[in-house]
Design brief:
Length: about 140
């Protein structure tokens, strides 16, 4: 994903992405590598992240300690779909993630237009007709 889009997600959702640069083993996440998917899923991730962040903000206001707040561990593409891994989630939050992951299979990972899952050279990807065979960035 483009750096400007990554920065926008981090800026808008500081609680759920709070340990993205942590060096210590206790708090380290795989977000140190950023969003390992194409920019076409930005809007999907923005909506999901915003919902997760609102929940985390509410928990914080209720006095939930930092160590128990929801936190994203990794975001990536796998087998043509979005994968989001979270720590300290609830069934409600995991349902939001599952819904976004399912939606990603009909959104082009490259541009965000309507897409479909295709197999190119043995790799499963979600692409529109214009981006079949392209590498997402």
């Amino acid at each position: 994903m483009h750096k400007s889009l990554t920065d926008a997600l981090y800026s808008k959702c500081p609680i759920i992405y709070r340990y993205r640069d942590a060096a210590d083993t206790e708090n380290r996440t795989l977000m140190i590598w950023g969003f390992l998917c194409g920019s076409g899923w930005f809007d999907l991730l923005l909506n999901l992240s915003d919902s997760l962040e609102k929940n985390a903000r509410m928990q914080l206001q209720m006095g939930v300690p930092d160590s128990k707040l929801p936190m994203i561990n990794q975001v990536k593409e796998k087998f043509g779909g979005l994968r989001v891994y979270m720590k300290n989630g609830s069934p409600e939050l995991y349902a939001l993630i599952e819904k976004a992951q399912h939606a990603s299979t009909s959104i082009c990972e490259c541009c965000g237009d309507e897409g479909k899952m295709v197999v190119v050279d043995g790799y499963v990807m979600t692409r529109c007709n214009n981006h079949i065979g392209h590498v997402a960035n």
